[in-house]
Amino acid sequence: MLANLLYVTALMLLSPVILYRMIRHGRYRRGVRQKLWGLSKAEAKAITRGRRCVWIHAVSVGEVNLLPRLINELEVETTLPVVVSTSTDTGYDLAVQRFGSQRVFFCPLDFTWAVRRTLRGLNPVQLVLAELELWPNLIRIAANQGCPAIIVNGRLSERSCRGYQRFRRFTEPIFQCLHRVACQDETSRTNFVACGTDPERLEVTGSMKFDDAPEDRDVPEVRQRKVWAGVDASHHVWVVGSTQEGEEQMAISAFLELRARHPQLRLALVPRHKERFDRVAGIVTQAGLELRRRSETQLPKSGTWPSNEVILVDTIGELRHWWGIADIATVGGSFGDRGGQNMLEPAGYGCAVSFGPNTKNFKEIAGGLVEAHGALRLQNGEELISFVDRCILEPSFATSLGVAAQQLVRRHRGAVARTSATLMHELNHLESKEHAVEVTRPGRSTDGECKQVA
Fold it and tell me: Which pTM was predicted?
């Protein structure tokens, strides 16, 4: 009940912001009923076809991108339907694109009534949470109904760990309710223990982002974008992706200086959030450059990419394919306060990768790339100009970065198989113990302490 009260209070306090974003940017409008009230019995039956299921929750685009290989592995090993929930519009759209609308839904907000209704309808065998989605009611009620909550690709930074420990009285019971955590690395494992998770329920399976990193540029998705952009063999394509406020301006300023001495350089910008697309378009045109938006599907007029034209990728879910046309890649969210974005996609393609000083969200991955000489960490716009300049003037430097990055990615693959094995081990254990994977019926014991599934 306390959690419900806190959620309602937070919604009331944030309602002006939410209302503004709904009106101004069209956010939060979709899936309101499923979020506030949970899945209806009819919706749940349509999603699961009336059968027990494995429920995987991926909050947004980054987490959804991790799932295709894992779901494929699971579907080879089990006949149970695998259903997917997300929390954001962009995550939902990508999940529908990847898995089909018939098994994708919006995750309920963490109100007890919405959680119970959804769990009652789905009656899942497992609740699988990607990376770190600690919703107290969802985890506790699932556990009390005999549905183990399992974290996959678990990541818990030292900063987040300290934050949870400040409120240990409230957060420790959540960590204790986790049935299994498949961690990305030893740092995360240590931090989960510090927050209250039983060490015996933890294992290091590695980061599934390495498995998800693409390698082959000779695929239809990349070839189509090369044709659309008008890339030819003489171009040096620089993609600056997952950008936040200030990073596009830095890239454009660098581009204006660099193109004066490198007319073969081409720039594509991929902002992180769709509500900023128009703002970034204005920055490009105000700089005196031509603009071509990806949402406008026309091919280049001349059949090639003009030197004064910047491409703005104002669509969702395409960035991994745009990295595939890049020779030089700068990963955004790292020169500001966001903490960086996934740098393994351009690394997998063998791009010459760079990012800014703030990569706290990908600390181990970024550090590993830099240590392996597979990427450069830059501090500011001046260093960014020097990096791109050197990549063009010294092709061997750019090539060595790309080769080292690809080698690192290949060495760390295998997390998906290990994670799938963990999930199947838990499923088989339940089946052998309960024969038909029977659980406590929803509604019987949902308000007490969570009872771990043995």
Answer: 0.82
